[in-house]
């Protein structure tokens, strides 16, 4: 089925577009009252993720409200370690936790990548259902966490400000961390390709915690594995190109290295000047980003002013996908998102 709106896909390949496409990380989420109602019906967050009917419903909710240029499948980055049997659960107000974090050497040696068509079938069913519901209106984005980001939760057992247990392993037993990362790399590659097979038309790798690493450690323990995944991704299916986006939060110092992975686009957080980033990576990749999500907490006027500033910083020409520098805050007034999308849509053509 031909896409009615392929602006996102063309922008990711740095082709001319009539305007800058926009979608938002975590665009289906707690800032929307309709999402909260559906989540309440599901019972909890994990039950919502694992119910394809309800996950499809919340994936579509922001598109019913806003003129967005893509849907992103509603899921969570921790589905892979959950499928590995680590016992994912969400404590109210505390974020994700694992019942069985990886601490013992034998546990790490026994770790294996799950078959996504079996243990992650609910995500693939959601992808298929969303793709059918979209009916070719806009593209569907699939995603996964990066091997290192997944490892952070798998080893620590929960979120952390410094992931000290992970870093201790990195420096003291790098062989064990490399084992986890190798298994995760196979798991992520298989998972993303299964999402593509199920109907995802672009994929994104979220490297949420790569930015806390030293320069050398980032390249060895995060980026090297991301590059393996990008190399192993399905690049075309049924004649349609499948672009990839890599986003390392806090990775502004390594944009050239990220661009060298072979991905089609590099995601930027809000600490990076997008014009300077464009000058650094040249025509190698498109750029996605990069408004501070906190701007959406201010006023419609401030939102529009900041959006225009980012668009002007990028400058004329193709290869920009407008997004936030991280996920949208649950405290965002929905009407401020309307103001953002109107500002981006109204900015004008992006052709040279």
The end-to-end distance, rounded to whole angstroms, is 30 Å
Quickly give the CATH architecture of the largest domain. Alpha-Beta Barrel
> What shape does the CA trace take?
globular
Strand ordering within the main sheet? 1-4-5-8-9-10-11
> pLDDT average, as an integer?
96
Helix content: 40-55%
Q: What class, by secondary structure content?
A: alpha/beta
Q: Please tell me how large the radius of gyration is.
A: 19 Å
CATH class of the largest domain: Alpha Beta
Order of helices and strands: HHHHEHEEHHHEHHHEHEEEHEHEHEH
- Count all strands and give the number: 11
CATH third-level topology of the largest domain: TIM Barrel
The major beta sheet can be summarized as:
7 strands, parallel
List the uncertain runs: none
Q: How many independent structural domains?
A: 2
Supply the number of helical segments.
16
DSSP strand content: 5-15%
What does this structure look like?
The protein has 352 residues and is α/β, with parallel strands linked by helices. It has 2 domains: 7-22 and 275-352, no CATH class; 28-65 and 70-249, TIM Barrel (Alpha-Beta Barrel). The chain contains 16 helices and 11 strands. The chain has helices at residues 7-12, 33-42, 45-49, 52-65, 79-83, 105-109, 116-119, 121-134, 147-156, 164-172, 174-198, 215-232, 255-259, 274-281, 300-314, 334-345; strands spanning 71-72, 88-91, 95-98, 140-145, 202-207, 236-237, 240-241, 244-248, 265-267, 286-288, 320-321. Helix 2 (33-42) runs antiparallel to helix 4 (52-65). The longest helix has 25 residues, at 174-198. The protein is globular.
């Amino acid at each position: 089925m031909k896409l009615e709106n392929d602006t996102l896909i063309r922008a990711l390949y740095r082709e001319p577009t009539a305007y800058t496409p926009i979608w938002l990380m975590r665009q289906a989420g707690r800032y929307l009252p309709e999402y909260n109602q559906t989540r309440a019906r599901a019972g909890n967050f994990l039950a919502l993720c694992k119910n394809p009917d309800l996950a499809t419903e919340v994936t579509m909710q922001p598109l019913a409200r806003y003129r967005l240029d893509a849907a992103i499948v509603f899921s969570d980055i921790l589905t892979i370690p959950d499928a590995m049997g680590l016992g994912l659960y969400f404590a109210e107000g505390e974020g994700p936790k694992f019942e069985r974090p990886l601490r013992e050497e034998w546990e790490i040696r026994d770790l294996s990548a799950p078959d996504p068509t079996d243990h992650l079938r609910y995500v693939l069913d959601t992808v298929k259902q969303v793709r059918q519901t979209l009916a070719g209106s806009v593209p569907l984005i699939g995603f996964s966490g990066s091997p290192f980001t997944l490892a952070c939760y798998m080893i620590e057992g929960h979120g952390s400000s410094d992931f000290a247990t992970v870093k201790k392993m990195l420096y003291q037993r790098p062989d064990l961390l490399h084992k986890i990362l190798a298994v995760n790399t196979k798991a992520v590659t298989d998972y993303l390709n299964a999402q593509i097979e199920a109907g995802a038309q672009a994929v994104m790798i979220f490297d949420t915690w790569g930015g806390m690493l030293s320069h050398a450690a980032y390249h060895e323990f995060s980026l090297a594995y991301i590059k393996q995944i990008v190399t192993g991704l399905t690049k075309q299916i049924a004649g349609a190109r499948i672009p990839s986006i890599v986003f390392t939060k806090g990775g502004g110092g390594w944009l050239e290295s990220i661009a060298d992975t072979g991905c089609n686009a590099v995601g930027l957080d809000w600490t990076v000047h997008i014009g300077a980033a464009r000058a650094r990576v040249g025509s190698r990749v498109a750029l996605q980003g990069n408004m501070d999500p906190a701007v959406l907490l201010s006023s419609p006027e401030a939102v529009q002013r900041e959006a225009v500033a980012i668009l002007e910083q990028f400058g004329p020409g193709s290869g920009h996908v407008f997004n936030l520098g991280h996920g949208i805050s649950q405290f965002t007034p929905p009407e401020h998102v309307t103001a953002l999308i109107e500002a981006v849509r109204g900015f004008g053509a992006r052709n040279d």
